[in-house]
Amino acid sequence: MWEHLKGAGHAAPAIAGEALILFYSEGDEEVVECLDAISGKGKWRLGYHAKSTARYGAGPGPKSNPAIRDGRVFTLGAGGALHAIDIETGKVLWVHQLGERYRLLPTFFGQGGTPLPIERSLIVSLGTEDGKSLVAFDPATGAEQWSAKHEWGASYASPVPAKFHGRECIAAFQGGMVEEPTGGLLLVDAADGRVLSAAPHRARMFASVSVSSPVVFGNRVFLSEAYTEGGVCFDIGEDFQARTAWRAPRFDTYLMTAVLAEGCLFGFAGQHQQNAELVCVDAASGKELWRDDLGGVYQRGSLVKADGAFLCLGENGDMAWLELGRAGARVLSRAKLFHAPETWTAPVIDGGRVYICQNQPGDGGSKPRLLCYDLRAR
Known about the structure:
378 residues, 4-stranded antiparallel beta sheet
């Protein structure tokens, strides 16, 4: 349907109504841009100076997605700039330079977890020297509401809302850049930030990051990392303590979060391109049901469940509709959209359209861009 050039970064677009928010960097600026989701025409653009704090590369630009709630756009830049922006006008409502406001713990690639707006709070995975692992801000004013005190710093997984035994909670997969790696599931009360439990799960090596967000189902939480430990499922008891239900060391998702469907967890597992496979495990027991490399095309791809099937995007620009179940995977249709590396951003589906981020220059001289395709013909 249309395409729109963008800068560097791996942030997915966020959509509310006909407003699409795109977040990227150009030169020494981070840019928040609002487009018409149907036509791709620009509505407003906000740019601000941003200093990269990445210590280990992974390219410039934001790693976290924009978030939208109640007419406000929230963005967290790689350097720690946290903005609240009016979605209609692009006016900045408030901004915190988190690196100046807090003594942030070191990170591999800058700040990366997507802010989580809930009913009365904006939850940010932070990690500070004085033990503020998660911080809640007032979405309207930016005032700090509470902090969850724990030594685990921010990872690249995003916190998610969860309800256990009638209690509103936040589940976060924490753990930053520390010489002796620590981290795991942090479960906090959404109202006051009280830490209810902390269950360790972290790779046994310094140069490791946790990227996959928690998957909550019933009174369970699934976590996965791709370096040494793989997947683990925790039961959350009535005392809110997390106890191991099962482990799946070979279900080691990396650049995507597993998808729950029909009593199974599906995801691309494997740290490296050459060993990545699509895997299915039974959500109740953790038993691996099958794995399939799909011909090696999609590598460390991503999955989105929609319209009774799964939309798969491979990390070099290959897209497919898949039928997934307990018995295996079947490719329903496929298309080569472009050939470019680092196509790690999950597709966004809205209003019969799919939005795809090309994050690196591609074959034929194509530049980083956002592409919109009409799915309704399917």
